[in-house]
């Protein structure tokens, strides 16, 4: 910044990085720091935020419970598309960032702040997600990203700084993990995980039981959907956050939703991370099962063509981009028929679809039966095949086709 800020809003998680940043901002700029924390389902972490931020000198500590809004307005829209990045990652962190960015802008406006501060590193995706969101909503606001400017070079430096200033943190040199948690998932990075050839320690898994220790008896659950969104579990209607929490418990008990991946960050490097998304894994499996009997073939295929691009946009931070919003409109329209239920069998780390049902199912057994029927003339298939092979015949005639 060309001049020192007088008042800033800090995206505050209560962890090592942002607690150090809170103190560092006061030392560096002598400015007032308002901390903002969004409760997206972090659990017990939220309970310590207020005291920790106040002890570190925040002039205002703001905590908002956004769990239902997070699930209803960000998780569910993405799951209507079955969004997934690089065929594995269900976008847990990515989906939380645009909501936090929106609220940071609103708080900055309310309190007349000069700048917004975040604790994302200069190597990661989150700096991009936060800043693209902020610039899309408030291009006039300044952004301070300490990891790109300060003297510290590692999380070990931050741990040493926190000890010097008597800051209460949970990270240690032995467990210097970076963790993001919300209702959709937990992600763990850093420490020994930076070596992709080393097995992740058992302590890095929090939401899920090791599959080998999961119950020996399978459990069947049914998820009901309305217009593409899950609305009930085992016949019990639940609010969005309650529903996801219920599925987290069920999936976690059976060791479902664990992945250990090396992903391609937007900034260009590869990164290894541990992700646990038990409830989201169950929703996606059940949703695809209901879609299979309710969506028109070409509509389903066209939506699926969008899937990699749509997922990549969310991963890279383009939630507020016009092309994401246009894609979302198509995706939402595609879900008008996706009302029904799917039953999953949960067992030892896996969720298998065992049945699906819908009042307006497009599955008609009288057409696809292997037994005798009076609704389909199999001889019609001959002309269908010949017409569709015509272009292949013409190509072969002019170019010689394929030689066997």
Features:
404 residues, alpha/beta, Rossmann fold, Argininosuccinate synthetase, chain A, domain 2, 3 domains, five-stranded parallel sheet, five-stranded antiparallel sheet, 42% helix, elongated
Q: What do you see in this structure?
A:
The chain is an alpha/beta fold and 404 residues long. Helices cover 42% and strands 19% of the residues. The protein has three domains: 7-67 and 93-176, Rossmann fold (3-Layer(aba) Sandwich), CATH 3.40.50; 181-357, Argininosuccinate synthetase, chain A, domain 2; 368-397. It has twelve helices and 14 strands. A five-stranded parallel beta sheet has the order 3-2-1-4-5, sandwiched between helices. Strands 10-9-8-13-14 form a five-stranded antiparallel beta sheet. A four-stranded antiparallel beta sheet has the order 6-7-12-11, with no helix packed on it. The longest helix has 20 residues, at 92-111. The radius of gyration is 25 Å and the shape is elongated.
The H/E string reads EHEHEHHEHEHEEEEEHEEHHHEEHH
Strand composition percent:
15-25%
The secondary structure category is alpha/beta
Q: What is the number of helices?
A: 12
End-to-end span in angstroms?
Answer: 68 Å
Nearest-integer average pLDDT: 94
CATH C-level label of the largest domain: Alpha Beta
Q: In total, how many domains does the architecture comprise?
A: 3
Helix content: 40-55%
**For the report, how would you describe the main beta sheet?**
5 strands, parallel
Rg, please?
25 Å
The poorly predicted ranges are: none
- CATH 2nd-level architecture of the largest domain: Alpha-Beta Complex
